């Protein structure tokens, strides 16, 4: 030990942060939130509802290969916000991108086959899916 148990000034910070913009193959794990709204198609307990009324998927992405293998990244995938449609639209766009990557569909392809590949039976279909992600660094409401 390099210092007293309550002094962390000499502790090493994590210098192995995945650089912003890195492309990595990841596996999505949804952490169940226990909130269902069958009228929205949200079943299976995957969605989570915040005290604010916002609804989202709690997503964990594990890098499956390369120099950052086994590292984890987290995000929320918006489904609903009482403030308006923006968060849900961003969430839908993210899921579309995940499905495009995982199922080999070009974003510009609107053929019936491509449209079918962008459909899911429920959020459980996303749990465990592997795709190529661009790692980004975001800020939360606390900066």
Shape type: globular
Give the biggest sheet: 6 strands, antiparallel
Order of helices and strands: EEEEEHHE
Instruction: Give the CA-CA distance, first to last residue.
Output: 32 Å
What does this structure look like?
By secondary structure, this protein is an alpha+beta fold. It has one domain (23-134). The protein is 17% helix and 30% strand. The chain has two helices and six strands, in the order βββββααβ. Strands 1, 2, 3, 4, 5 and 6 form a six-stranded antiparallel sheet that branches. The two termini are 32 Å apart.
Short description:
With 143 residues, the chain is an alpha+beta fold. It is 17% helix and 30% strand.
Name the features:
single chain; 143 residues; alpha+beta; 6-stranded antiparallel beta sheet; 2 helices; 6 strands; 17% helix; globular
């Amino acid at each position: 030990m390099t210092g007293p148990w309550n002094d962390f000034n000499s502790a090493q910070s994590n210098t192995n942060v995945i650089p912003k913009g890195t492309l990595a193959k990841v596996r999505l794990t949804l952490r169940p939130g226990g909130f269902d709204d069958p009228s929205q198609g949200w079943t299976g307990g995957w969605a989570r509802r915040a005290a604010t009324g916002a609804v989202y998927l709690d997503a964990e992405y594990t890098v499956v290969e390369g120099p950052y293998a086994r590292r984890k990244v987290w995000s929320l995938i918006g489904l609903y916000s009482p403030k308006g449609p923006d968060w849900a639209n961003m969430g839908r766009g993210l899921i579309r991108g995940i499905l495009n990557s995982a199922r080999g569909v070009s974003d510009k392809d609107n053929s019936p086959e491509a449209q079918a590949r962008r459909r899911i039976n429920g959020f459980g279909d996303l749990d465990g899916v592997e795709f190529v992600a661009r790692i980004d660094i975001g800020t939360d409401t606390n900066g």
